[in-house]
Amino acid sequence: MRTVTITRDRLGRGPLILVNRSHPLRPAPPPECVPVDSRCPAVALEKQAAALLSACIQSLNGGAQIVPVSGWRSAEEQRRIWDETLHQEGEAFTAQYVAYPGCSEHQTGLAVDLGRAAPHIDFLRPDFPYHGIWGRFRAASVKYGFIERYQAHQTHLTGIAAEPWHFRYVGAPHAALMTEQGLCLEEYSGFLAQTPRRCVLDNGRAVEVRYVPCMGQETEISLPEEGCCQISGDNASGFVVTVWEAG
């Protein structure tokens, strides 16, 4: 085994950061984002998330029916959307469907709103049905590392109304674990803190996932000598350690 030291400022970095009104974004370098689709150059995601989203849509031949509507947003853009929606729709609607500036997943580059192709697409609430190609995308997206982030039965935990169009990249093993266990991101660190979890991906590769609490300004984490590893902060109180077993 080898030991790595992770500093406290890494709590707010990684694909598993929780971002909501109770867990605002921490200072961090801006994400390296690229367009999801050349036809929609203004809609960008963190580069790995963008590549995997594109691959998922292509695997379904869904490019003509699935449209990226909104991806990464700057702090200024999120503030503008909040202010405009508050003015036009009122406080109750805005609180349901727009994250408060500084508390939006869109500012991470890991979240995307998708819509059904149509002459007019509602920017805030795009239509993204549960049937047809859109339902098949939901099922397939899990193995590409995406979850449907805001579901109706989890509103009391997420604080956001059901958004069938909003998908969040977390990584393949985590999307599979959350989906199998019926968890939202607000519950995931607590679930992992109970005991390390192991899953086998579609390609047959085994993955172990565990939670390590932040111990102060520096946290020591043990990793195997071999195999691919990832350490992501949860933007709360610890780190999620993912180890792909050497094969």
TrEMBL record:
UniProt keywords, alphabetically: Carboxypeptidase, Hydrolase, Protease
Domain D-alanyl-D-alanine carboxypeptidase-like core: 45-171
Tagged with keyword Protease: yes
Signal peptide residue numbers: none
GO molecular function: carboxypeptidase activity
Entry annotated with the keyword Acetylation: no
Protein name: D-alanyl-D-alanine carboxypeptidase family protein
Organism: Dysosmobacter acutus
Lineage, top ranks: Bacteria, Bacillati, Bacillota, Clostridia, Eubacteriales
